[in-house]
Specification:
315 residues, alpha/beta, D-Maltodextrin-Binding Protein, domain 2, 3 domains, Porphobilinogen_deaminase_C
Length: 315
């Protein structure tokens, strides 16, 4: 392949870091590349909460449109931002090995507010998934909106009268901005595919697809797609507090032979965090491909459809 692969990316520091990673991996495989940065609608509007923008793929649609218009050959996305139904004409070419899937609390002045039941703490996040899980655990707290790239959000935390803000660990760690005070929220399930990077190209561009496919990590792709199937089956999107995590674990069978199992955990919350349903299932990796859909259907049978209906009605 002699052509230069043009890599489209948002122009934030984190997005450029992700695109540069893909660039270096392709270079290792012998391909020439160049970066083509663009600003997405999600980066331009830093005021409207994500869940109020009424658009799935708010951070990806600008890149996808430019990709289909052949302004570049591949686009690099945080996989959690990609709609479960991708745009027609675009193909998933590679999922890179996953970084941390966890969420972090970055406190402003200590964590005493977490243990004070009489104090109405103020925590910032633009994610209604994080908001719902936080209010379920701390119903006496308040949530305020926080938008912008990672650098902007950290700056706002230092300026505003907030007790803390919630971030994705992978985003802070990739660009070396994780504060020493950050606390991993082990009890909070992540967004489907959080921590994974997705490379997409045009379906018609088989040469570029084959080049990028060399970067694909099958285990991360399997886990992330199971999580996204869970989200899709529950009819969720940016405006639905749905979380999912699939992890491959090495264990032993009854005869002491090593086997690989996939553990799946998922949940759905009402917007205020008061109502929720959760599920956990573990199966052999070779039997796991449909697990996200199966788990979601079980939750729908238990009443998840009622939570979804309530969310769509804005309650």
């Amino acid at each position: 392949m002699n052509k230069i692969i043009r890599i489209g990316t948002r122009d934030s520091q984190l997005a450029v870091w992700q695109a540069t990673l893909v660039q270096s991996l392709l270079k290792e495989k012998g391909f020439q590349t160049e970066l083509v940065p663009l600003k997405s609608d999600g980066d331009i509007d830093l005021v409207t909460p994500l869940y109020a923008m009424g658009v799935q793929g708010v951070f990806t649609k600008t890149l996808d449109s430019a990709l289909l218009s052949e302004r570049f050959d591949i686009a690099v996305h945080s996989m959690k931002d990609v709609p479960t139904q991708m745009a027609q004409g675009i193909a998933a070419a590679a999922v890179l090995p996953r970084a941390s899937h966890k969420d972090l609390l970055v406190p402003k002045n200590g964590t005493e507010f977490l243990s004070d039941a009489a104090y109405s703490g103020l925590v910032a996040t633009s994610s209604i998934r994080r908001k719902a899980q936080w209010l379920n655990r701390y119903p006496h707290h308040r949530i305020t909106n926080l938008r912008g790239n990672v650098n902007t959000r950290l700056g706002k935390l230092s300026e505003e009268d907030w007790d803390g803000a919630i971030f994705a660990a992978a985003g802070l760690e990739r660009i070396n901005l994780r504060p020493e005070s950050a606390i991993e929220l082990d009890w909070m399930l992540p967004a489907p595919a959080q921590g994974a990077i997705l490379v997409v190209c045009r379906e018609s561009d088989t040469t570029t697809f084959e080049a990028c496919a060399l970067l694909n990590d099958p285990d991360t792709a399997l886990c992330a797609n199971i999580e996204r199937d869970f989200l899709k089956t529950l009819m969720g999107g940016c405006s639905t507090p749905i979380s999912a995590l699939a992890e491959i674990e090495q264990t032993l069978d009854k005869e002491g032979n090593p086997i690989r199992m996939l553990r799946f955990r998922g949940n759905i919350f009402s917007l205020d965090g008061a109502a929720h349903l959760a599920i956990e299932k573990t199966v052999a990796v070779e039997d796991a491909r449909e697990l996200g859909t199966i788990a979601a259907n079980e939750l729908l049978e238990q009443g998840a459809d009622k939570i979804v209906a309530t969310i769509k009605n804005g309650n």
